[in-house]
Amino acid sequence: MVRQGWFPVILAATLAAVVLLSSQSLQLGLDLRGGHQLSARVLSSDPELVITAPDLDGVKNVIQRRIDGLGIAQTQIYTVGSDRVVVQLPIPQVTQGDDGEAPEEQVDNTLQQAATQITKKAFLQFGILRPSEVDRYRTLVEERQDASREVLIGQLQLEQLQRARGAGAEQRGAVQEALATAQANLDQLEQDIGQLFDLYPLTGEDLVQAVAEPNPQSQGSYYQLNLTFSADGAQTFADLTKQVASNPNLRLAILLDGRSISEATVGPEFRENGITGGGARITGTFSLEQARELEVQLRGGSLPYDTEIVEQRTVGATLGSDNVRRSLSAALVGLVFVSVLMVMIYRLPGLVAVAALAIYAIFNLAVYALIPVVLTLPGIAGLILSFGMAVDANVLIFERIREELHSGRKLYQAVEAGFGRASSSIFDGSVTTLISCLALGYLGSGLVRGFAITLGIGVGLSLFTSLICSRTILKTTLLLYPTLRQIKYFQSVQ
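The chain above was modelled as a monomer; its predicted structure follows.
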């Protein structure tokens, strides 16, 4: 009669969720915890060009896609005046990493990544080396190799100092300064190399997809970026490679904001048709972070105007601690009242529902910590609403059990029939709510998306807790305590 196989599964899952919550805290959004604010000014290289409101919205949309691509959830991005875009980032949840990176350094890295996505135009172009610049190109390539080696050495030295506990701030500062100088030299050389190429009408506008993956030729040391073009872009790329293949001294360059980030030769076998298929590959000495950053920039699109960070500051919780405390207190009081009413109305099944609701709460919070979900006040509202739906599912089941008991069925039969016949209604109601959550999550953004995510997770978990956990707990209780197998324990308190 009792499906005892579920009981150890539920117990193990609950213990695992408790361990996860004890070792990993939840991430709170801007309205609950505060965060950082970056203000960027939008500039035009043409002094006569006036940046309109639609232009500013276009910049904001590109920045939004890039920040979302970094995985920084629940950001708030809005325009101010005629030339400002403000980006508010929640404080990331950081811990002492295995590589020795301190939490403060992790926060700084997150801010640096966000600032890079805000200021990099990421204008992708393709060019062919001018025949008259072949010798100059070879000289600059040798200098770039030396500069790349200096950058790599500086990065390794900095990583070693970050792992070393005895390294002082002065020593790290000297290495960081040398690394910045080497990186600036490398950037300038890449800019100089880019000027040796004639540009052709194949840009990031023709790009459909960009995916970073390990470079198989480097045995996992470096990463590459695979590009996929549109139909027109694929034809233009084939024409370009056909032209480069006609001369072994020529190179095809991929330029980002005027800097050559990769050059390649094209074999003579492509002289007739060029490289077809609509794909290209950017190789080089890209680390995972560099390849990922480039992928995010290209996927998010290029910025139509120059941008610069003009202000960076810390912002407090927008709702204030008192409002948050009162909201949470109201939610807890409501849950207590619901639990008391469930016990008074349904007695033993109501007590089982309260236990299942506690398990449901633990599962929800564990999923939030695992994904992770950045909790905002609308997200908490979605969580509380999902609690109500979970209780509503139990009400449907217990009312069905009562109907079966009133019709003359025995207790075990009534319990089994109650869960079985109510499950279809619960499932249909949950599916319709999940469809609404998907629509809100896909079409909405910011706080609306946070509400949809928490509600969707809650509805999905409520199916498991109401149909599996409640049934298992109730049947196990009846099996272990025969004195509770009486109809009076399924009737409301008089």
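The domain at 35-121+303-315 is CATH 3.30.70.3400 (Alpha-Beta Plaits).
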